Amino acid sequence: MELRARINAGLKQAMRDKEGQRLSTLRLINAAIKDRDIALRGQDEGPAEVGDAEVLHILGKMVKQRQESIRAYEEGGRLELADREREEIEVIEEFLPRKLNDAEVDKAIARAIGDTGASSIRDMGRVMAALKSEYTGRMDFGRVGPQVKDRLAAG
């Protein structure tokens, strides 16, 4: 099932089950996707609505925003707000693909370096672009960037 359809099905189910927090989060997801659709309509060329890859990017961005909010709330002693953000992350992550474990991340980095022919730190952008095109939503690029940099510096 297409990602957008899965999100809408989850939204309808949350309405039926009267799950307020889940419903609110799914509505935020839909709003973010529709905002992106509207932004695309303003451009002359390209699709009229976002595809699954762009939806994954939006969801990943939403998770990252909530993680930053959690840190800020915890520093400010607002633990109930941090818990609410964690609940939203759980709902959003239901629609993201399974995260890669450390061994899988290492293999993906090695393959991306080989595929792009990267040999120095100057090639890091190409390697990261290759990883992002294939593994959006499946790895934390904030953690992967330093790993790629270390490999290219050593190699």
Labels describing this entry:
7 helices; globular; 2 domains; mainly alpha; 0% strand; 155 residues; Arc Repressor Mutant, subunit A; Hypothetical Protein Yqey, Chain: A, domain1
Short description:
This protein is mainly α. It has helices at residues 3-17, 20-41, 52-75, 79-93, 102-116, 124-135, 141-154.
Please describe what this structure looks like.
The chain has 155 residues and is an all-alpha fold. It contains seven helices and no strands. The longest helix has 24 residues, at 52-75. It is globular.
Tertiary shape: globular
**Class based on secondary structure composition and strand pairing:** mainly alpha
Number of strands: 0
SSE pattern, N- to C-terminal: HHHHHHH
What count of helical segments does DSSP give? 7
Average pLDDT confidence is 89
Radius of gyration: 18 Å
Q: β content, as a range? A: under 5%
| Quaternary structure state of the chains depicted | single chain
**Total of domains:** 2
Largest beta-sheet characterization: none
Q: Which stretches of 5+ consecutive residues score pLDDT under 50?
A: none
Q: Residue share in helices?
A: over 70%
Give the class-level CATH name of the largest domain: Mainly Alpha
CATH superfamily of the largest domain: Uncharacterised protein YqeY/AIM41, N-terminal domain
The CATH architecture of the largest domain would be Orthogonal Bundle
